[in-house]
Amino acid sequence: MSANDDGMILNFVTSSGSAADEATGTKKITGGRWKDRRKLRMQLQPKPNKREQEEEGLADDLEPKKKKHESDRKNAEQRSGKIGNRQTKSLDDKLTNENHNTGGRSNKGQLPPNTPGAQIVSSLFTSNRDIATSKNTNAKDESALVNPSNAPLTGDDFESLHTNETLVQHLKGKMEITKPTSIQKKVIPHLISPKNDNDLFINAQTGSGKTLAFLLPIVSQILDMKSHVHRKSGCFALVIAPTRELASQIYQVALQLTQCCHFLVPCLLIGGERKKSEKARLRKGCNFIVGTPGRVLDHLQNTKVAREQLSSSLRYIILDEGDKLMELGFEETLTDILKIVHGIPLNSSKFPSLPNRIIHILCSATTKGHVKKLGDVVLQNYKLISGKEKGKYSKSELAAVPDQLKQTITIVPPKLRLVTLGGELNNITKRHYHSNEDAEPGVTTRTMVFLSCSDSVEFHYEAFSSADSAYKNCVSDSVRELTRGSTVLPCFDLSKQPQVVLYKLHGSLSQPIRSSTLKHFSTDNDATKGKHLIMFCTDVASRGLDLPDVGAVIELDPPFSVEDHLHRIGRTARAGRSGESLLFLLPGEEEGYMDHIRKYHPLGWSLVKYDEDILEPAFKALHVERSDKQQYRDENKKEVLNWDTNATTWHLNVERRILEDSTFKSVALKAYMSHVRAYTTHISSEKQFFNVKCLHLGHLAKSFGLRERPKSMGMQNNKNGKDSSENKKPSKEGAKNKMWRMARNAVKESVSEFNY
Ligand SMILES: Nc1ncnc2c1ncn2[C@@H]1O[C@H](COP(=O)(O)OP(=O)(O)OP(=O)(O)O)[C@@H](O)[C@H]1O
């Protein structure tokens, strides 16, 4: 067993072993054949199972292990200046003592260790892997003045870009948009000018207004045409986006834009909606089609009227988030769509002021890899328009993060991930309360927490919303408003409403629930105004979604690629607004990821200590009560405890809930296993940082509230959430094949995540 397995050993259950002792060889078996005697002896002397075998070894192992812990801890103490692991001997001793008082932490059990069924629970703060990064080599210059890089440009206006006058007035009056952003300034003149008819490859920062950059000049050109157009004139532009949410959002922008010209009508075609009503809308006529690839192709193949809409009028095909379209395997679908569309004859004499060929526009965060292949297939003689300023920053193929985004990174041992997330959410909530102290009506704070899979979203949503039933469901059960008496965050005053609403969003939810959850999160109304809205989500929410005023993005699980990282954090700091993001990394190999993403963060980041900077401010000067005891009903008599004791109690409360609530336990088990599976799907170029073999599975289990690692990683949960692997024959599948199968399943799951 490796040194890193220490935590696992601490988790073993001590068995009474009495039955086995009695049966051992003292009885003499005589008579019969030797084979029968041997058989009987073996029956009487049951084979020690794996756990018992390991326990036998444990007694021998434990002493050297204990010594190793001791020396590890001393080493950590000596390494002053390192991040985290600043626990001192007295703290460890204190925790150990308090473990007795609070029902079992550290190396002590809830029951005396020799009691049958006693469980040994590993401490949060001990045996954690050392953090190697001692210095922030990409530190942010806090004193430097930063200009928001995706903000509207102060010196320019839309009139000078030859945008239609009615549209400009509408932008100013109804949409409060007066100045173009940098990418709009580059794209609009190109698309408006009749001389330019080459295809476009648009590559720009997140939140820089790409949607308007392509929609605005198209609508402007249609409005500038001499011929009178109406909804039956045909479809001028087909916009394809990888997710239903993004397609719906682009459709909403098109709706907003065409409010000044009601005769132009956009239409939305996405999976999860009724095809019949989409057909009816197509029959009525539309001028812009926005949709997801599968549904668009379906209509083009099976709905005659959809093909008729495109004949003679179609001039623009826009593929938004091209890299994601490719990553999700839509290449074939897109090729089929293009084949059908290009097969429809174009009557260039009908709208002579529009380009006399179909212009293809590809928007993508990256210009390399798969998307380049898509570009080669889709685009002809294309022009690359990049939001990057010449000579500024990296030579990379990806746009850098917006300058005003405040990136923070924290390196957190696996056992402490959940409690550190709790601490961070608590700190943001405290800041939210503080900013709203005098403000009337209160400011709404929005935070997004990105996780690797749907099951993990379910677990964290449950863990942070339903500790004590002090909540009420708002939209089905995907939106929960926490109510008076909730104890999920330590800053809650039990006598007041917590002013926190929690959301979950992932691809396994039905489309209507996904849409209504997003709508609830995005709108300021009586249910949301002045509150802290926290959304737990998968990458389904990372692409292109323009949610208003997201103040913070937390990447609890590392992104699956740099593009995903940039898109996740790009949900904040949009269109010149401020925003901050926090990336969690594990000590060890994951620390190398910082070098990998450095070039996309040219202005640097802050490195924060999970204990001093997150846990201590969150848990200090209070008394977190154990969930199984109501000792201090009188708030004034509460004894103030140390932050580490409070953090441990908070975590134990989650663990206790899992022990008591079998439904929550199955949610935690599923989340843990899906998390590990998802971890195996990191792309090969990033495997050096995210290698499942380097994960400490026992410690990781702790961050899902589990006191030990589930025995069978490949086990399937039956309907009751119980392990059904016991009933199955042991698989002959080799470890390597199993890993590959799990990885393939995870990829499949992540694709179906988006449910096209
Ligand atoms: N010229 C402008 N002035 C002010 N706000 C703008 C302007 N253009 C766009 N916006 C706003 O900026 C936000 C981001 O726009 P949009 O969603 O189009 O960005 P994006 O570049 O497509 O982002 P992503 O890469 O994340 O998809 C939207 O809320 C939009 O209304």
UniProtKB/TrEMBL annotation:
Compartments, record wording: Nucleus, Nucleolus
Major subcellular location class: nucleus
Region annotated Disordered, chain positions: 14-120, 134-157, 707-741
SUPFAM superfamilies, A to Z: P-loop containing nucleoside triphosphate hydrolases (SSF52540)
Domain Helicase C-terminal, chain residue ranges per copy: 427-616
Tree of life domain: Eukaryota
Keyword Transcription regulation: no
Record SMART domains: DEXDc, DUF4217, HELICc
Biased composition (Basic and acidic residues): 69-80, 720-736
Enzyme class: hydrolase
Parts of the chain that traverse the membrane: none
Signal sequence residues: none
GO cellular component terms, A-Z: nucleolus
Cross-referenced PROSITE patterns: HELICASE_ATP_BIND_1, HELICASE_CTER
Catalytic activity, reaction form: ATP + H2O = ADP + phosphate + H(+)
Keyword list, A-Z: ATP-binding, Helicase, Hydrolase, Nucleotide-binding, Nucleus, Ribosome biogenesis, RNA-binding, rRNA processing
Entries under InterPro entries matching the protein: DEAD/DEAH_box_helicase_dom, Helicase_ATP-bd, Helicase_C-like, P-loop_NTPase, SPB4-like_CTE
Polar residues: bias regions: 98-109
Family named by the database record: Belongs to the DEAD box helicase family. DDX31/DBP7 subfamily.
Stated role: ATP-binding RNA helicase involved in the biogenesis of 60S ribosomal subunits and is required for the normal formation of 25S and 5.8S rRNAs.
PANTHER family, per the entry: RNA HELICASE
Protein name in UniProt: ATP-dependent RNA helicase
Organism, scientific name: Huiozyma naganishii (strain ATCC MYA-139 / BCRC 22969 / CBS 8797 / KCTC 17520 / NBRC 10181 / NCYC 3082 / Yp74L-3) (Yeast)
